[in-house]
Design goal:
This protein has 545 residues and is of the alpha+beta class. 18% of the residues lie in helices and 26% in strands. It is built from eleven helices and 21 strands. It has a five-stranded antiparallel β-sheet. It is globular, with a radius of gyration of 27 Å.
Length: 545
């Protein structure tokens, strides 16, 4: 998380006269330009002058503000312009089409000055949500105000336009998730929809093979085959000939991916072996203090060892969409390895990444080979990421938790309750009739007299859990299935930290099988996405594996 996205949340939108309304649809935003912004680099210029007076540094033009604009809805950053260097009259002319489902009093345009040590608030413009509800375009030149409501500088203005389109008027949602063979994918995203290929979906990284999972019949008459994710990862790395690129929060290099009595190398040993064979091995990990280099491979270790078993979801992509995953890695790598400070003064040639165009077996792959309409089991796949190239600033240095699960649940229940009130149904129905949250429980062994603790309180959730011998199983899955046909699996949690767009870097894949859709079958589809197992693997089985 970068500090510049914390200080812009105090603005004119907090005025008590503004009524919060639900914006559910799309915002069509155009940020044109700003005029007469203040110089926020006066201190930097003063310090620079002092340094020059003590050295023989040549005279140069004094710097001024490096402005950019973030768009906030209910404190969530939904769009951001690029930074224009040293310009008090910047012109962006940037267009954004932003899906929203936020309850907010205003859409806030926060102007900031990008600086070496983060960002400094210049001022903001607040467009009341009520003025957008009619669907008419709101445009004009607005004064840029400080948090106290005063102009940030004489004549400082921001020219913009914004139009709210309710979801009922968005035709792209009128015919289901994937309306037909000409479905272009999710619009206005960085990566396009890639037609054709294979997707393998996994429940947990390792599943037992003793028949404890249910048999599920697919629409093609076959039984669903439960995948072995870690086995497949190990096999893919073992067979790699050109590159192995890994990204994540951490890498526990002593872990063994292949178990069940088979003789498999640890992850670290396998990566070192492939590196010695000439395979390019790169690890892009969160800036963890336990990082270290192991034989030239950047590794991350954790002396605590692996955590307790988590339920999770994974996917494997065998498709042209894999190129998009590769492109995302390359862009992130180049940004993370960008030279800063005094290192900028020396020559640099980043030859760590392989030049894909010079690897024939990769560059020669043709998208058309994958997109055969005659294959009923094919997948169409699209890669998503939560930030664009302009706002990538590296992995978070000091992640802090944002909205809690409890607050998220409360907000969702309140929205449903208000909808029931507006329809006059609040006396007949409860929010829980439409939305419920469930957590898996693990039945624990009975306590012996020696392990019993203190007094019991009926109002204490921990005591209730102990009494009923039920404790939560951590479900770390980050996936969603929509209408039994479209599946999304990725790194993002459904919370502010993942979805804001300027904090954690997230990536996900959205995919569906064109043959197994409502539009194609005119009935409930039963493809791979539909039949992801919902029965949990017993914790005892996970512990054994």
């Amino acid at each position: 998380m970068s500090p510049d996205d914390e200080d812009g949340r105090t603005d004119a939108s907090s005025a008590p006269s503004l009524r919060a309304v639900l914006l559910h649809g799309s915002l069509d935003i155009l940020i044109h330009e700003a005029r007469n912004l203040p110089n926020k680099d006066i201190l930097s210029n003063t310090m620079g002058g002092l340094l020059k007076s003590c050295t023989s540094a040549p005279e140069g033009a004094a710097s001024t503000s490096d402005p950019y604009v973030t768009v906030l809805v209910a404190s969530a950053t939904v769009a951001r312009t690029y930074v224009i260097q040293d310009d008090e009259n910047p012109r962006w002319a940037q267009h954004f089409l932003v899906p929203v489902a936020h309850e907010a009093a205003a859409v806030n345009f926060v102007v900031k000055d990008s600086d070496v040590f983060g960002a400094e608030l210049i001022g903001s413009v607040a467009i009341p949500s009520e003025s957008l509800q009619s669907g008419d375009r709101v445009e004009g030149v607005y004064p840029v105000l400080e948090p106290n409501g005063k102009p940030c500088a004489p004549g400082a203005v921001l020219r913009l336009s914004v139009q709210y389109v309710p979801v009922a008027r968005l035709t792209m949602y009128h015919h289901g998730v994937t309306p037909g063979p000409d479905f272009p994918g999710v619009p206005n995203t960085y990566f396009p929809l890639r037609r054709g290929g294979r997707v393998t979906l996994y429940q947990d990284a390792h599943v037992p093979t003793d028949g404890c999972l249910p048999e599920i019949r697919l629409g093609n008459g076959t039984n669903y085959r439960h995948g072995q994710c870690w086995h497949d990862v190990y096999d893919a790395m073992s067979q790699a000939r050109s590159l192995i690129y890994i990204t994540g929060w951490s890498v526990f290099h002593t872990i063994h991916l292949v178990r069940d009595g088979e003789n498999g190398r640890s992850l670290g040993d396998l990566l070192k072996k492939k590196s010695k064979e000439g395979v390019r091995v790169l690890l892009l990990v969160w800036d963890d203090p336990t990082s270290r280099s192991v034989l030239g491979i950047q590794m991350v270790t954790d002396d605590r060892g692996p955590r307790e078993p988590w339920h999770d979801l994974h996917s494997k992509i065998d498709s042209p969409a894999a190129f998009d995953v590769l492109k995302n890695f390359e862009e992130r790598w180049l940004k993370a390895s960008k030279r800063t400070g005094a290192k900028k003064l020396t020559k640099s040639c980043n030859d760590t990444l392989l030049w894909i165009e010079k690897i024939p077996e990769i560059a020669a792959i043709d998208d058309e080979i994958y997109s055969s309409d005659s294959d009923p089991e094919r997948w169409d796949i699209q890669i998503f990421r939560s930030i664009d190239s302009n706002s990538v600033k590296g992995f978070p240095k000091d992640p802090r938790e944002a909205t809690s699960k409890k607050k998220t649940m409360q907000m969702m229940y309140e929205i449903i309750y208000r909808a029931l009130q507006e329809m006059g149904l609040d006396g007949k129905y409860e929010p829980q009739d439409y939305l419920n949250f469930f957590c898996l429980g693990n039945r624990e062994a009975e306590e012996t007299p020696n392990t019993s603790t203190g007094s019991f309180s009926a109002s204490n959730p921990q005591d209730q859990s102990r009494k009923n011998r039920r404790f939560m199983v951590y479900v770390h899955s980050k996936g969603m299935i929509v209408d039994d046909e479209y599946v999304i699996i990725g790194s993002a949690n459904i919370n502010q930290r993942s979805m804001e767009g300027t904090r954690d870097t997230e990536i996900a894949m959205g995919a569906y099988q064109p043959h197994y859709t409502w539009a194609n079958m005119l009935s409930a589809p039963r493809g791979q996405a539909t039949n992801q197992p919902t029965k949990s693997i017993p914790e005892s089985q996970l512990q054994k594996s």
